[in-house]
Amino acid sequence: MTEIETKPVPQRFPDELVASALFLLKRLGMTAKERSFTAYSEAGLHPYHHAILAVLDEGSLASQGAIADTLGYDKGQLVGLLDELENAGLIERRRDPTDRRRQLVQMTTSGRKTLERLRSLSSRLENEFLAALNDDERAQLHTLLLQLAEQHLPNCQLSSTANSK
Length: 165
Fold this sequence. Notes:
Layout: H1 15-18, H2 21-42, H3 47-58, E1 62-63, H4 64-71, H5 75-87, E2 91-96, E3 99-107, H6 109-129, H7 135-152, H8 160-163
Antiparallel strand pairs: 1-3, 2-3
């Protein structure tokens, strides 16, 4: 029997993949997600909680369905996340007086304090992840990503107040 020659597999991605912007976006997204979940888990929450609190911060009251639609969450998944937030005292739910089938969700004072902590955590994670870029490069990257997001993600558009910042 003849011996088959094997070549060692390089410990890097093939050039073909690294040359693909979509591959890099996917891999960077996966890495950012892993780091975020680890950091949020250490804080006793996760990024999904942060997103829900951020939605509630833009409006004083929202229905569960509106939150799910805004964030693109499965309604069943959202109920579990809201249960966790409610058990932690970060939100309150009550029946909509005009439609008893709907639950209205409101952030508590403790939820607002937690949201500020999560914003700091998110900012720290972003600064660490983008440390290789200077401020101008970060702004340019954000502009390009937002341009793509506005094309591919219907809920991803900055409000007029965010645009003026």
